[in-house]
């Protein structure tokens, strides 16, 4: 099913012509409206006139998460606040979130992009869609919400958490589409079965999962657990939120909405642009965003692009499922966590050494984070009250900065392994459960 068939099936040369026109306009727009870009582009000697073909994009400098953070909160906005109608944010590297703003046109384009990938797997106006992403600054819930409403679905904005209630509503409200992270869907299906709810009593037929990776093994389990067709969609707050790309019914890659996003693949170490079909870091230029346009944004996500026309008839390029990150960002229960955030919290606490380990596990398809911290004075081991206070203090500060609960385990001085080269601080055991 198509939402905007004429756009989704455009000839490649027409897509490229549209992208070039929009790219030129974007360079001009950024020059005029964002001092940060004006400086960057001027230094690089780039003006709209100099962009003659799409590959001239290589002369534009990359933008990174650090650039957004350095301009916190609104420094990269290209319009005055009177034109902004929504603000979202995602977690950043130092506890400060990455803030993004949307104009009314942005929200409209965003809903179109979301409606496209929902329609592409068969979601339509007869559907009842339960949104089990957390509503709030996170783009997942409201992004899907607007797109699904645009398709005419009946949306259940239940948000995340309270899993037994989620299962009850799925059954009682007759939800046909479930929207969540894949791990939460898996957990929900187990809770539903523990409650005695069988798949026959549910009307679920499609899962729209995203915001984190999903192995084929987990996908199979979710499909069996809920008796639905599980699909993957991708996005990030800096670029818009969900809707950057999504699978169609053939599930052979995620179609990028190329009229709004211009993708490139680069070597993440050298910054060199790689030829089509090679694996590397995805870089995206937003072609239509007004609130906070992104020129060559480095997503840090590793993938590969395929430009051949898909069996579904869509011509928009397909990206393979995200295969990892070129930085150390972790997705824990849907939240972006950087080890550097944890380090900065630990640095503020007296009585502990800078040596720590993060242990990630998965139980009932839910991620758990344990932070193992070394105390720096053996005498403390004898004093339960002080140890307890230290542990609670660290747990509280971590929760405040990360936004998720971590179990803090204090360990004896010099008990955490030391490394001669790069320290290995992350022990990720999450795939061991599957
Ligand atoms: O996760 C936006 C989103 C919400 C996408 C709901 C899909 C559904 P952020 O919180 O900014 O935005 O996190 C973005 O999450 O750079 C990827 O590393 C990861 N990610 C998002 N979708 C997928 C996916 C939202 N389908 C970061 N597969 C991205 C693997 C994903 N990783």
Name the descriptors.
four-stranded mixed sheet; nine-stranded mixed sheet; 20 strands; 31% helix; binds 5'-O-[hydroxy(phenylacetyl)phosphoryl]adenosine; alpha/beta
Write the layout of secondary structure elements.
Blueprint: H1 5-8, H2 12-33, H3 35-44, H4 65-70, E1 86-90, E2 98-102, H5 104-120, E3 128-131, H6 139-151, E4 154-156, H7 163-172, E5 177-180, H8 182-194, E6 206-210, H9 216-226, E7 229-236, E8 241-247, E9 254-256, E10 261-266, E11 280-286, E12 297-303, E13 305-306, E14 318-319, E15 330-332, E16 335-337, H10 339-346, E17 352-363, E18 366-375, H11 384-402, E19 407-411, E20 426-428
Parallel strand pairs: 3-4, 3-5, 5-6, 6-7, 17-20, 18-19
Antiparallel strand pairs: 1-2, 7-8, 8-9, 9-14, 10-11, 11-12, 13-14, 15-16, 17-18
Helix pairs in contact: 2-3, 5-6, 7-8, 8-9, 10-11
Bound molecules: 5'-O-[hydroxy(phenylacetyl)phosphoryl]adenosine.
Residues 90, 139-140, 210-213, 232-237, 241-242, 299, 301, 322, 325, 331, 336 line the site of 5'-O-[hydroxy(phenylacetyl)phosphoryl]adenosine (DLL).
């Amino acid at each position: 099913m198509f939402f905007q068939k004429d756009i989704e099936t455009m000839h490649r040369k027409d897509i490229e012509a549209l992208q070039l026109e929009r790219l030129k306009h974007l360079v001009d727009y950024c020059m005029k409206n964002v001092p940060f870009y004006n400086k960057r582009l001027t230094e690089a000697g780039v003006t709209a006139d100099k962009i003659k073909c799409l590959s001239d994009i290589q002369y534009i400098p990359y933008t990174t998460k650090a650039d957004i953070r350095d301009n916190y909160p609104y420094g990269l906005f290209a319009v005055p606040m009177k034109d902004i109608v929504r603000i979202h944010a995602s977690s950043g590297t130092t506890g400060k979130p990455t803030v993004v703003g949307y104009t009314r046109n942005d929200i409209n384009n965003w809903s179109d992009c979301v409606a496209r990938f929902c329609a592409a797997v068969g979601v339509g106006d007869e559907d009842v869609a339960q949104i089990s992403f957390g509503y709030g600054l996170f783009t997942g819930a409201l992004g899907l919400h607007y797109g699904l409403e645009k398709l005419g679905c009946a949306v259940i904005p239940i948000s995340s958490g309270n899993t037994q209630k989620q299962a009850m509503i799925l059954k009682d409200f007759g939800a046909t589409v479930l929207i969540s992270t894949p791990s939460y869907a898996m957990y929900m299906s187990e809770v539903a079965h523990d409650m005695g709810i069988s798949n026959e009593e549910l009307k679920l037929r499609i899962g729209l999962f995203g915001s984190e990776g999903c192995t084929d093994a987990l996908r199979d389990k979710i499909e069996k657990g809920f008796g639905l067709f599980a699909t993957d969609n991708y996005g990030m707050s800096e670029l818009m939120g969900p809707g950057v790309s999504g699978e169609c019914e053939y599930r052979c890659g995620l179609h990028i909405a190329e009229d709004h996003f211009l993708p490139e693949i680069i070597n993440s170490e050298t910054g060199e642009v790689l030829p089509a079909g090679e694996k590397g870091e995805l870089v995206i230029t937003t072609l239509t965003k007004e609130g906070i346009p992104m020129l060559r944004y480095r997503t840090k996500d590793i993938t590969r692009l395929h430009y051949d026309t898909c069996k579904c008839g869509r011509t928009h390029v397909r990206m393979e499922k995200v295969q990892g990150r070129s930085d150390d960002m972790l997705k824990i229960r849907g939240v972006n966590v950087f080890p550097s955030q944890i380090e900065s919290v630990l640095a503020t606490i007296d009585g502990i050494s800078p040596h720590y380990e993060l242990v990630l596990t998965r139980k009932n398809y839910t991620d758990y984070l344990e932070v193992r911290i070394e105390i720096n004075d053996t005498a403390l081991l004898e004093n339960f009250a002080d140890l307890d206070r230290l542990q609670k203090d660290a747990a509280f500060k971590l929760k405040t900065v990360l936004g998720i609960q971590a179990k803090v385990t204090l360990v004896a001085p010099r008990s955490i392994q030391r490394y001669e080269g790069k320290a290995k601080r992350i022990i990720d055991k999450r795939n061991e459960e599957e």
